[in-house]
Amino acid sequence: MDKFKGHTAEEIENRIIELSHSYTPEWHYDKENPDIGAAIARIFASQMEDNVGILDDVLERYHAEFVNFLDLTLKPAKPASSIVVFNSIDNGGDGTEVVRGTKLLAMSDGGEGQDIVFETTRNLFVTNSRLDLIFMVDYEEGSVIPLLGQMAPIEIYEGELKADPLEESEIEEDVMPVEPVLQPFTLFGEKEGSICRSVLSLYHSSLFDAQDDPIFIRFSGGERLCSLISEGKIVFKYLTKDGGREFDEVALLEDGVTFRLIKKTECEKLEIGEKELSLVYLEALVPVREILKATEIGISSSGAELEPEFVTDGNLEYNKKSFDMFTDTIAIYNECFIGHDRYFNKPGAKVNISFDVSFLEKELYVTAKQEEEELSIIKRKPKAVWTDKVVDSVINEISFEYYNGLGWKKLSCDYDVSTIFEQCKDGKYEISFTCPDDWEPVEVGAYSGRCIKLQILKADNCYLRPAIHHYPQVKNMVMSFTYEGKYVNPDKAEMICGTKKVDITGNLDEEEFEILAGSDYTGDALYLGFYRAMKAGPISIFFDLEDAFGLTGIKCRYEYSTIDGFKPLRVLDFTDDFTRPGIIRFIPPSDMHEMTIEGQKRYYIRIVRNERQSDPDRRMFMPKIRNIMLNAISVENIFTSDAKEFFIDESAPDMHFSLGAGNILDAEVWVNEKGDISKQEIDFLLNNSPDSIRIDYNFVGDVAAVYVRWQETENFDRALSDRCYVIDRLLGEIIFSDGIKCRIPRVTDDIAFVAVVRCTNGTEGNVEAFRINDLMGQGVYIDSLTNPVKAYGGCAMETIQKALRRGAGIIHSRNRLVSIGDYENIILNYSDSIDKVSTVVGETIDGKKNPADITFVVLMKDFMNGSFSFHNIEKQLKMHLLKNCEMVVKEDNVHIVEPTFVDISVNAWVEITNIDDSFEIQNQIKAVLQEYLNPVTYISHTGWTIGTIPKKSQILMRLNILKSKAIVKRIAIICKYTDYMGEKEVDLTKLEVTPFMICRSGDHVINIIYD
Hints:
By secondary structure, this protein is mainly β.
């Protein structure tokens, strides 16, 4: 019968309809046209309403009279709390003050009625500075992770990629700048996004251009570096159009310090100053925590035999496999150009050109036309005697030249090649020379690049006729190069240490020099950069943390930047070492100064981690920060009235005075005791409790009034002081004693007492985020304000029914906490926001077992909105329990925690009879599951007990309420939760239920089957 207590006949009838779906789903209850069953149900509901009402009148009367012996008063409503962030007007000043008690207005969630008043709980200086740079350093991971602001990794290479003349340049479009937004991150637990690098960049104009040919790099004295490369912790890369690419082959030679590298792709050129350089670099894949050194860096290379890139006479292109070097007709100054830009760009290398030569003959005679032209100037033709004597013409001397940027210069070969074709001998020829360092590209016909020019300087009889020209035909020309074991320094060398780039080209000639190192940071820290100085305080910064199981507290110290480095900063930490959302407060030191870090000049505050988490399994519980906001302060749904003055004409016992307010939170009452308080008592209060006495003087300096602050009590018989009063919150009155048990105000010729009343809206104060957005009155230099988080924790004044239950609990426990029921009753009665509680003895939620431990698992009614409400009462509730429990219970053994929430997700396959009902049935099943798996108790649902998880058969039975329209063929139920061992996802049948678990609705998928 208790289930129908306080319910009307209509509510009882609706409950019968609801239950009928489970017990008799085939019965259709129609209120408009009731059948016999519906008529019986209505009669039952009407009779039950009458019976319960009669029983309530009898029992409640006796119950109330019995509890009245305790002389209880109703507990006040609890104000909602939130965080408000202020933005000031940038007027060129330092900011503006917001004093404690400043009234703010929030629009009610319904959008109708009066605005809800909030008051700031502490003083705040709203600074004009702005938090615009945040980055995090993780020493163990070797990372520097930008979180807010303009920070980018150091570019591995400098200069511009050589432009391809055939490639169209992209047109840059104007892009609107985007306001930087802080993305959620894990404090000291982020793995991605680091701009920290450990790189050694080596530049050379030619040695890295080898393709399919070996490149040799030697690190003399760098055995440790070579070991890390061999272990795969550091890799070789080279620059291509698509970025850095690893070499196809990397091998360490027998000397242990020289690497042989082969790549299949062309190396991209960089334009650095007036040079074109190629880049090969070493990049560390793991954090480098040591300084790696070497005594020398040497580069060498060799090239396999390749055909020339082009052969031409300046006009005609020759076949590279077989060509007549100076055509088949020998003539002075005939030219041949042989080009290979890559091989001829190897200063200091030995280049070898080999080719097969066969000398062919061509007979040349004087034609009839030529003879007439020769004799045209002779008047009289003499008698000529012709003799056909044929002469031989060979190439007696050639030049062998290269272009140096100014002109053609002789190329010095290992032996004289100027008369190489004079003997006209067939066979294999070789030419070798040392590649000069001033060889420049030149345009020859349709080609551009480095090339050799061969030119005929002397050829006897080349113009005589008849003649036989012995000209060379070249086949199978190939060329190669080698440095013959010689190593050269790179043209340029740079080292990236974390986020800094250092040019070490000038150090290459030293006896020993650094070649690779890590970041300069020595610990884990979060850096907050402010673009303007904060010159007044207190300053508040809000850290908004995501709700998570068992957050690991992080012990940190705070430091601020000065001209001499970082110094300790004293703060008040309301985040409890980042285990909950909260603010930190501090007074800006006068010596706070700008500092340049990562190229960013800011006023810095850094949060330094004292020590790393020793247990790697607990690192998954690091706090996740959603946002960091400056100029934030906590507010409460409290309205403080102006001081109300009360006068007494006649002092009497049990005086009642109306305070003229509802939902009274508390009152500050000052009673005028002039003429009733002794001088010794005044002196005692002034010395020991100056906040509880106030003396007013008139204009001539005489004492006009002596106000003493009295305290509220719940019962005059149990009052801790005789200066006390009782507030009847139901009637909104203040009540004084009878003058015997405790004092009462006296009749004076002035004010008898003054009361400042604080009221709250209770549950109405739980407004949504961004509802608090205005000041009551004019706020100087305040541009805007808002609450980024929902207000939480507000509850209404205690009802009479709850007071009666509390009184029954006091009688049962005799106001002592001994049994589990005593503890649970006092917790449930502590706040109306608590839905249910469970007690676990001898075990904590993180798996530790100790017989002395007592863990109270508390489920809040608004748990779906986050843990704000729980954190709001956790500390006060623990102190309340410790104040009333046995002395043998120690503070360290009392634990108040939220349940381990198990998200139950149902994947169901449902067969329907009418295809048009598919959407409706899907929505109905999801609604049924969400209601059924809701752990909170409400009118038509009892919720779930902490430590109990519904079984598969129970869920299946619940889904059968729709069997008239749909039949559940199969279901799969997955449970997902996070406990002290991490995230887990298991089938419901394999779930190991702990006393800390409670279910909640997950994501459901309803699959429709229609045959």
